[in-house]
Specification:
By secondary structure, the chain is an alpha+beta fold. It is built from 5 helices and 12 strands.
């Protein structure tokens, strides 16, 4: 027992920094140290606490196993209902913050604690990490089974991954994030969380037209098709872009064009100042005075 100057002392009071040597097993950072009157008493207390810890771990493991069995049983029951032609009710995901599940394993307790602190700080109001459990040591078969049940991922920090564990994870569809540098691991976790973010969709209006008249044309001598006679007010209206139809500033249709004609000729685009005939896919409820917007839609992935 040594003080901050490296001098051996017989005792240390509250708040006194000391260095303790002679451990049979290196304690974890943050572990509680208790003094016992003798080695036999200390050993009995340690054995009792180890046994209690194993019971708690076994209880947690059994809970995960039972959850796996319950989900598997529900899956079999749904398959039987489908086979028998019965209606199957599939639970819908509740709205709110999406959670991505992780199991954290590391080489030492200090590494695990650092990973937990770094990962727990990630996320936003849409998605966040959820640590199922953590521990010191390599990834085990039970870790893979637990992650598979929860549809989660495993973080392995600075620990070797046995080939049989890697094969089991691949077969179960479980991703193991294997890193030994903390900032790379943070980037990996950010990437998995970002996959759950709703993409950013932007729209750019490229052309506008006004419906001046409505008429019908005969298609192959069989049916009459309503056509919107339009004048391009601004920009370019393209045949292959999406369109909106507005009436009194409210959207009454959103979809695509089935045809774009100039006189009787099919065209791919019409520019400002020209007149054309339009028809819409699965909709014919347009009226004189409706406004048409042709727009491009861009979808971008978002990241944390």
């Amino acid at each position: 027992l040594k003080n901050e100057a490296g001098v051996q002392v017989a005792a240390a009071g509250p708040g006194t920094p000391v260095e303790v040597d002679g451990w049979r097993e290196q304690p974890a950072a943050g572990a509680e140290v208790l003094e016992a009157p003798g080695e036999q008493k200390a050993k009995s207390v340690v054995d009792l606490r180890v046994e209690r810890g194993e019971r708690l771990k076994m209880a947690a493991d059994m809970e995960a196993v039972n959850e796996f069995r319950r989900i598997d049983q529900e899956k079999r029951e749904r398959e039987e209902q489908v086979a028998e032609g019965e209606d199957v009710v599939i639970p819908q995901q509740q709205p709110g913050v999406k959670e991505v599940y992780f199991i954290v394993k590391g080489d030492v307790s200090g590494s695990v604690e650092a990973v937990l602190n770094s990962v727990s700080a990630l996320g936003n109001e849409e998605v966040r990490p959820h640590i199922l459990r953590s521990g010191v040591g390599p990834v085990t078969e039970f870790d893979v089974e637990h992650a598979a049940v929860a549809k989660g991922h495993i973080i392995s920090f600075n620990t070797p991954i046995e080939p049989n564990i890697a094969r089991a994870a691949e077969a179960a569809g479980v991703l193991i994030l294997d890193e030994n540098i903390i900032y790379r691991l943070v980037d990996d976790v950010k990437a998995k969380l970002s996959e759950q973010l709703t993409p950013l969709t932007t729209q750019r209006v490229v052309g506008e037209a006004d419906i001046a008249q409505v008429f019908e044309i005969n298609v192959k001598g069989k049916t009459n098709m309503p056509i919107a006679g339009c004048r391009i007010r601004n920009g370019i209206v393209y045949k292959n872009t999406k369109v909106k139809v507005l009436r009194d500033k409210k959207v009454v249709y959103e979809g695509t064009l089935s045809s774009l004609k100039n006189v009787k000729k099919d065209v791919s685009e019409m520019r400002k100042g020209n007149e054309c005939g339009l028809s819409f896919n699965d909709w014919s409820g347009f009226q004189i005075g409706d406004q048409i917007q042709s727009y491009e839609e861009k979808v971008e992935k978002r990241t944390l």
